[in-house]
Amino acid sequence: MGAGGWNWNDAWIFVSAVIAERLERDRALHAALPVTGATLADVIAAADFLHHSVPSREDLEESVRRLAGAGLIRVDEDLIQVAPPGEQLWRTRPFSGLSSAVMTLQTQLNRVAEPGYSEWDLDEQAYNAAVREYSLRLADGR
Q1: Which has the closest alpha carbon to 17: 97, 136, 105, 129?
Q2: Order of strands, edge to edge, in the sheet holding 38-39?
Q3: What are phi and psi of 82, to 5 degrees?
């Protein structure tokens, strides 16, 4: 746990959600589609990109609950969006590049917000489907 109650996994999932949502927003805008948010598979892909590992179901569920409860992200089924306070936190962070973004964000989280709690459950079936979708993307080279 960090001094303010946020842990490394929370920052990892938050940065992953920011990256995933921005990529999805760019894809939607280029294809003239509505912007809906990032899927769990998108967040898992970004998490793997950042840390070369896939978060466990339990870690993902716990961090999403804490981030959503603090008002930094919104979750609707399997879609995750960065909420305005999360956007503000991301935009005002000290720039450090992606290699240290998670550590920088953990420090920022501990300075500006307390973890919250949201009643969101990630069942094993939904998690496995998201991991399977991400694995298929890797196999296809996407």
Answers
A1: 105
A2: 38-39, 79-82, 73-76
A3: -80, 125
Q: Residue 39: helix, strand or coil by DSSP?
A: strand
Q: What single string gives the DSSP state of each residue in 72-83?
A: SEEEETTEEEE-
What pLDDT score was predicted for residue 36? 82
The pLDDT confidence band at residue 39, using thresholds 50, 70 and 90, is: very high
Q: What span, in angstroms and rounded, lies between the C-alpha atoms of 46 and 10?
A: 14
The mean pLDDT value of the chain amounts to 91
What burial letters (b/e) apply to 121-135, b meaning 16+ CB within 10 Å?
Answer: ebeeeebeebbebbe
Residue 73's DSSP bridge partners are: 82
Cα–Cα distances (Å) from 138 to 1, 2, 127, in that order, read 32, 33, 17
Amino acid at 40: L
Cα three-residue angle 24-21-9, rounded to 5 degrees? 140
3-state helix, strand, coil in the chain (%, to 5): 60, 5, 30
Q: How many CB atoms lie within 10 A of CB 15?
A: 23
The yes-or-no verdict on residue 108 having pLDDT over 70 is: yes
